[in-house]
Amino acid sequence: MTFIPICLLLSVIVYVARSDDIKCPVQFCKCTNFEAICSGKYLTYIPRLPRNIRKVTFLNGNITTLSGGKITNLTFNVIEILRFINNNIVRLEPDAFSTFMRIKALTISSEPALLAKDVMNVLNNMKTEHLKSLNISDNNWGYLPNDMFKSIKKDRIHYINLKKNSLRLLNLTWFSNMPALRFLKVSFNKIATILLDSVPNLKSLNLDSNVITNFPKFCINHGNKSALPNLRQLSLSNNRIEHIGEFRCFPRLFSLKMDDNSIERIDYNTFAELKKLTNLSLQATGKPLKKIEDGAFNFPLLKMLSLRNCRFHFDRLSLLAQRSMMSNCKDIRFLDLSWNYIKSNILRRMISQLQKLRYLNLENTRLTFLPSNAFPELPVIETLIMRMNRIYGWNIDVFAHLTSLQYLDLRHNLIKIINESSFPTTLLENLKTIGLGTNQFACTCEQIWFVNWLRHTNITLLEYPKQYFCTTPDNYEGKLLKDFKPSYLSCNPIVTIVTSTTAFVCLCVLIMTIFLKCNTNIKNLLYLLKVNQFRRQGYLPILNSEDYQYHAFVVYCDENRMWVHNDFVKKLENEEGFKLCIHHRDFDVGESISGNVDKYLKKSWKVVVIISNAFAKSEWCQWEVDIIQERRRRQGRNALLLVMLENVTSKNMTSPLRTLLDSTPHLRYNNGIGENLFWSAVIADLRQPVGQPPVSEL
What we know:
disordered C terminus, 19-stranded mixed β-sheet, elongated, five-stranded parallel β-sheet, 16 helices, 25% helix, alpha/beta
């Protein structure tokens, strides 16, 4: 009788020994110490895994049905984290996970054919004593059963993810009996309605990318109690909220995100009831944001404020409003004002009281020349971003008060010369990263210090050397600064003066000699020059571009600059050999815009107009349209080439622009199919002779 138990014991020992030798099924899975990731379209079953595996992920498989029997191979492991993502599951049996005793995190995601009711039945039949995290996202569920979470141990679960479904309703009653719930994600759904109930310990709620139109108050019991009394973080970005509501039922909220909504104004004391708010993000709100009342940011604990891409005109505020806007935010550390309208002369008024500021973003804020008082004393500032502006220079002491700066970004501006006095020594000693690429660098003798500094500095240079190149003079255009090595003679003033004087004397002697011996020929040459002058004035037809410095003058607005520079100019100049006049590159610094336009139009054979909605809204561009109309009346429609980047809406269409479009054929740019035809038409048009009205020959 004792023989049989001994045999059974030996069998168990052999079985356990063999099970310890289970290898990772490498045709489907990758295994590490405690984790296995199994994937592939041929994965149709649950394979056996090594005994040490605790975390399992099934990804992009073809497991259509899950039941207790089909998942038996996992019962030999102590599974703590189980994830099914995009496995074409259409049926989930109630007993599928009933044998798992220690699951801490469960994910069933990207299974659009699976019913929410099946997941509810699985949760009702599994052991949830240890379950802390539940992710049932991206399943395209339009609703959840009211009993979806009733079987979950309420004092354990602390994280639920329902994002990327198609839920139209959020019922907080589903979570009201979960005292341990801390984090709830319901973003990227279609939620328009929220049914309130108390979720007492919830700390983070994410409602991004829904269709909420009215700001939820989260007050219950006739407004006398907060539904979320311990909420710390609330995110409502990318909804349809037009008006900011009341905040009195958020007693502990410290982070609020409302990016990309339709809020057009921020009124006085809007956030005053948020006594503990430290982080506020209102990026891309309003489109554009039209009004900020004085005292709108009247809360002293604020540490982070982002108004990025609100397109707000800070330059239109009164002097008092500019000074007082941030006056109560003296504790602010992070400030993002990029993609708004700020002039250099108002910067100091806006940030003069932010002595604790560490990060300041002024990207694309229309900054030009930086005066001495542009920046106040900011003793702890570490990051300053001013890329994509129109900065062409600054006073010698503009950075004198920013000695703690470690990161400075001045890329994509109009800087031509950087010399030894551009940055104070105290700044360069502390600086760790600097960006100066994609500027309008002039490769002249004035640039020698900067070129040498680039080669020897220990500071990290963003995009160096690729984006550090010469734009002037013409013989150095496109040359990398690292390859610019001017000679001693070209940069020595004394040698240059002596050489120039000698050459001038020799030239004068030569001219006098030629004049005395070739008097008749000189008269003929003067006559030919006169004929050429008459041709330029319209007395003779102009049939080609030989008499002009540029093939075409390109008219465009700043919003289309990237396409013009990266696509249009690159294609026509680098590949087809045209020479275009681009105002960001070719205009003379220091001369007025109107003077530059008049000067370079006369040097250009034709005019190319890049038309878009931004172009139609620009006052400068409309002024240029009036000038272009005069060119068309004198030289005919072949003197113009109109390029439509997009359809101009009726509200942006002006009378002069409509007249120009009606009287002149235009080309429409299409990216992808038809793009080659577009470029062929542009090239042919630029090479077509200008049709002058008939005139008499001399």
